[in-house]
Amino acid sequence: MIRQALFFVQQRLNAYFKQLYGLSEDKAILSYMVAPDGSIPNQNTDKVIINLTNIEHETNVYSRKGYTQSSPDQVLIEKPPIDLNLYVLFAAHFADYQESLKFLSDTIAFFQTYNSFTHHNSPSLDPNIHKLIFEIDHKLDYQEINYLWGVIGAKYQPSVHYKVRMLSIRMGELEQVIPTIQQVEEDTQAFRSTKA
């Protein structure tokens, strides 16, 4: 589900850049900032790199179970979904610094205009994703940004960090099967004794 969500964002951002500048090539790429071997991937040159930096379990959501009536005589209870917030870094990695600033500004403008994606406004959104909401991560101060880039293992590039709410991961695993009530019988003897 995480891959589908970020791939969707990459596609939408690329469509925006192509419309804005009449480009034929993709400028947004879902990639490492630094490869596992410590090198900078060649594919990152002159691109806006989309990189997942953290995952947070959303605990402020009412824990819900999925109830489904599978037949007239039973109800299925699925395990509740896991609700996640994603933290995503958009870094403009261009040889020309001014191009980096231009594409970073365009990325921010894109998410200012399109900060919420649903099936209503984005039919290509994966059917298993209900909604994606983008908010600039205001919590990062200068020291935390420095730490983030240190953890990534790269030198700072013009970038913006977003919190993406809320991705629900559900496997549809059954927790319980409950038979439905077929008939209600009255205990008339008990009813009469309470009336007396």
What is the percent of helical residues? Answer: 25-40%
Can you tell me the residue ranges where pLDDT is under 50 for at least 5 consecutive residues?
none
Shape, principal axes of CA atoms: globular
What is the makeup of the main sheet? 6 strands, mixed
Q: List the secondary-structure elements in sequence, H or E.
A: HEEEEEHEEHEEH
Number of strands: 9
| Helix/strand structural class | alpha+beta
Rg calculated over all Cα atoms: 24 Å
Main sheet strand line-up: 1-2-5-8-7-6
What gap, in angstroms, lies between the N and C termini? 62 Å
Number of helical stretches of at least 4 residues: 4
Average pLDDT taken over every residue:
84
Give the oligomer, counting copies of the same chain as homo and different chains as hetero.
single chain
How much β-strand is present in the residues? Answer: 25-35%
How would you portray this structure in words?
There is one protein chain. Helix content is 29%, strand content 32%. It has 196 residues and is α+β, with helices and mostly antiparallel strands. The model has no long low-confidence stretch (mean pLDDT 84). It has four helices and nine strands.
